[in-house]
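It would be a great kindness if you could assist me with a short task in structural biology. I am sending you one protein, given as its amino acid sequence and as whole-number tokens for its backbone shapes. I would ask you to consider whether the tokens describe a fold that such a sequence might reasonably adopt. The full record is reproduced below for your convenience.
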Amino acid sequence: MTEDVRDPSGDGIRCMLMRGGTSKGAYFLTEDLPVEPAQRDSLLLRIMGSPDPTQIDGLGGAHPLTSKVALVSRSAESGVDVDYLFLQIGVDQATVSDAQTCGNLLAGVGPFAVERGLVAPGDETTTVRIRLVNTGDLAIETFLTPQGRVDYDGASSGTGTAIDGVPGTAAGIEIALSPGPDARLLPSGSVSDTFNGHSVTLIDNGMPVVLLRADEFGVAGTESPAELEERIDLKVALESIRLQAGPAMGLGDVAHATVPKMFLLSPALHGGAVSTRAFIPARVHTSIGVLMAASVAAGIRIPGAVGADIAALTDTGPDLIEHPGGTFPARVQVQLGDDGQWHATSISTRTARKIFDGVVFPRPRL
């Protein structure tokens, strides 16, 4: 009998398009994609329409925030429900990177797991324990499932949750993040380091970021992402620091990586804790990612860290992290442990929405 070889270009691949937080991506069951990474990546590039600055022939939205993929599977790890692998798909380059995770797409992982039958829903709410494969961190996600169905709208609770950067309201999803066993909040071991004459704080509370003073780079903190992207001198200066920060954070050569992210901090303008502009790393984020906000919020709570002296903090939180699209409420606690190291825990509220569920047809070749 001849083996039936499935042609994904002709038969299509099961896919759910979802908005997670302030990002949008394609969600897949890991089992529906090739096991071999090179074959998998080639398929995902064809699905997303890369490399092409418009991604006109695929699902991608011509921006890093809309060229993302989440792979979800049942977890073999004790006490964990599902594994989540995040892949950043290049827009105008044929790249697929697992060097970072995405806290925004993370918001959709729990609902997706219920939709695909990986986790049985509760009658009112469901809690899903998620292992972030990229980082080893653990996320505990709780969301509404009235009568065993995911409520994306929030109607069952009588109210919706609004997050800046997304129009309207949707059902709130609470995400509690615990760092992995090998995680270090300050990867270099120092609260402050110096590169090219600039004091920086290297911090990783779920996302590797570099904190810098905006005024040292002629940035007021009121500029739009488009205005900052036009400043070639600024991009060159930040990239030089980023290339030095990568090895110091244990990330190795980051010349072709999307981490660490570069954050310019300035005093808050709208009653928040601090104002941010984030290079991710070539484009400027139109808002802020969940884990980026968690890392910034942890950094500004450490005495001596860059931004701590200009941050307006409250005793109880949350800390409102200002960004180009509004504010992000980050609930982060930091403490100095008996081991002499700083540690952090964080809780955030995001929303997600199922946009499309069906099959996607990749173009036949790159």
